[in-house]
Amino acid sequence: MRRTLIESLFRGKLTEPAPRVGEAEPMALLTELGETARGRLGRSLAIRELDAGSCNGCELEITALGNAFHDLERFGLKFVASPRHADVLMITGPLTRNMLEAMRSAYEAMAAPKFVIAVGDCACTGGVFAGSPACIGAAAQILDVDLRIPGCPPDPVTLLKGLIGFANALASAPTHRSTQS
Amino acid sequence: MMIDQATWQEAAADLASGASVFVALWAEPAGDGCVVHLAGRPRGSGDVGVLSLMAHDRHFPSIALHHPGAILMERALCDLHGLIADDTPDPRAWLDHTAAYAFKPAIGPGIHQIPVGPVHAGIIEPGHFRFSVNGETIVRLEARLGYAHKGTIGLMRGQTIGHAAKLAGRISGDSTVAYAYAFACAVERALGIVVPPRAAALRGIMAELERLANHFGDIGAICNDGGFPLMNALTAALRERVLRLSAACFGHRLMMDRIIPGGVEADLTEAAAALIRTTLADLLTQWGRLSELYEKTASLQDRMVTSGRLDPAIARRLGCGGYVGRASGQDFDARRDAPYQPYDTCRFTVPGVSAGDVDARIQIRMAELDQSISLIRDLLATLPTGPLRAALPDTPITTGHALVEGFRGDIFAHVRLRDGLVEAAMLRDPSWFFWPALETAIEGNIVADFPLCNKSFNPSYSGCDL
Ligand code: SF4
User: Fold this and answer.
1) Fewer beta carbons under 10 A from the terminal one: N or C of chain B?
2) How many angstroms separate the CA of residue B143 from the nearest CA in chain A?
3) What is the pLDDT of residues B101-156, one digit of tens each?
4) How far apart are CA A93 and CA A121, in angstroms?
5) Cβ–Cβ of A64/B293 closer than 8 Å?
6) Do A133 and B239 touch (CB under 8 A)?
7) Distance between A131 CA and the closest CA of chain B, angstroms
8) Which is nearest to A159 in space by CA: A87, A101, A75, A98?
9) A-to-B residue pairs, Cβ atoms closer than 8 angstroms
10) Do A55 and B236 touch (CB under 8 A)?
11) Example GO molecular function term (chain B) (predicted)?
């Protein structure tokens, strides 16, 4: 174990610079988001991921956001265990009928201000499952969706770009949705 | 083959005695009734046979009555088609959540229940677990699924082969290569075509890359649940490198829609092949260190060894495949026992142990990583040249089936084609047998060890919710 630890120390870090969002510089973005998150939402932007019946492909890429290459926590973004701790509900999957009630309860459990992000083609449009009698389709059919990140599944860099861009948008529109209950 | 009820009962008796292994049970509408299909294979063989029975008045004799491994599938099939399995031991609805549901009871002094899900604390699929516990000890677990039910098989009916292949690749996203592979093989057998050798080799490379990525990711995740996040941080980086390699070589990190009926979608360039060779060598060096770390960390071993033990007799009875079966004394691997291209000419060994605990399942996966790396190397070394696709001929009506070894275990695919469209299909995930296996393996463990045990089985939710 000691050898693995020492080697890890000397190999240098795997973490990559932030992906570019628009014209802004990656490192500037990082600080900006840190301030945004602190200013608007306390110390961080807390995300509750909710699988509304995905094929699990989207979950794999969302999980990859936490690996050493992407390390999303350095941006002030983190996944939390309970909707009660969350500012953002991140929805994947074509919203199956069997998940409708659970999704509603999770959303209702969140404190305002709260936001909804649809991740993956399924949550954005129903994807290949659109039209299935077992599915409702896009998350927007039931909740107001603030951001869509399409892809099947979107890769982690696309996800990061979307999330960082979203936090920036929040910062530049200080009253955005703040009255939403 | 259409059979009568007496032959159906004989097949059920063979499953009950262990002479044959249960593969799948599904139905398709036929006139105002339904045809129920039962797939099984002789023990020790990958030679799957399908028996079909006309269900008059929507009734058919239960298979689960004789063979408990069929319970979940019988329940799902009743929900999907309104069929009644006569004398089934568990007639409760499974996918239909509008029906009332009573969890199995556990009664005794001090026993109480802990409900969990369908929204879990982590980034995982939706399902509900009902733990009946006595103090910290689990006396009964019941998993209730169906939350990811998308009607995928139903959506495949009447679609083009190409579109149905896309749906097949989304039955369980972590096995998208294996599902596309299984579906493609079933279509090719139905049409009587053989894919070009280069396409076959590329399929093998993709399937092994998928296995590598999932084994790396899961080994780390199991260790994480065992209180050792360092291993997770390091293996997650290895997984990421495999996904990047897959994207660089095949244009998609998970390689979705790269295997298509008739062949493969994209070629592998010389440069990409060279990249695989060098990356694999590097991954192998780093992986060597990590497997040593696993073996030598006493606190980790303490959590893994003896936890979540699946009795080999139960694994046999349920017909568990993959790392779950092979860690509990079952010796079956579709790549070897139901040979298909390119594995029919590859050399590899199928690891097996019988301790049946979390550690055993990790040991199997660790051994499989080494095998996958050497398989990819061999396939690259002998990569044939030539076309990537065979044309799909037009045929009036044909059926075909296939068994393909995904990272979890054998995936069964069945398809009936009519005039270039998919008339009926079935895709069966290995997880159908992992869920009941997990329920038995968890008994007597403490609640805190559930995530660890669950992750070591890692059953797919979407793969069963169909
Ligand atoms: S968008 Fe694609 S990867 Fe995500 S859940 Fe849907 S089918 Fe799966």
Assistant:
1) N
2) 15
3) 999 988 889 999 999 999 998 999 999 999 999 999 999 999 999 999 999 999 99
4) 8
5) no
6) no
7) 9
8) A75
9) 142
10) no
11) NAD binding
- Greater confidence, B33 or A157? A157
Residue that the structure tokens 């159908």 belong to: B432
Q: Do B461 and A56 touch (CB under 8 A)?
A: yes
Smallest CA–CA separation between A1 and chain B, in Å? Answer: 5
Q: Relative to the CA of A61, which ligand 1 atom is closest?
A: 3
DSSP track, chain A: -HHHHHHHHHH---PPPPPP-TTS-HHHHHHHHHHHHHHHHTT-EEEEEEESS--SHHHHHHHHTTSTTT-GGGGTEEE-S-GGG-SEEEEESS-BGGGHHHHHHHHHHSPSS-EEEEEHHHHHH-GGGTT-TTB--SGGGTS--SEEE-SSSPPHHHHHHHHHHHHHHHHHSTTTTTT--
Q: Does ipTM top 0.85?
A: yes
User: pLDDT at residue B366 above 90?
Assistant: yes
- For A71-125, write each residue's pLDDT tens digit: 999 888 999 999 999 999 999 999 999 999 999 999 999 999 999 999 999 999 9
Measured from the Cα of A93, ligand 1's closest atom is: 5
Which of A58, A95, A148 best tests ligand 1's pocket when mutated (most atoms within 8 Å of CB)?
Answer: A58
pLDDT of A176 > 90? The answer is no
Pocket mutation for ligand 1, best pick of A122, A128, A149, A155 (most atoms within 8 Å of C-beta)? A122
Helix (H/G/I), strand (E/B), else coil: B339: coil
8-state DSSP, B251:
S
Query: Which residue is it, tokens 């309970």?
Result: A82
Q: Which residue of B has its CA nearest to A2?
A: B293
Distances (CA, A) of B381 to A102, B352, B385, B389: 51, 27, 12, 21
Cβ contacts of B122 on chain A, cutoff 8 Å: 81
Element (H, E) at B306: none
- Which residue's entry shows tokens 């073996």? B295
Polymer length of chain A? 181
- Residue B117's closest chain A neighbor by CA? A102
Taking residues B316-342, report their average pLDDT: 97
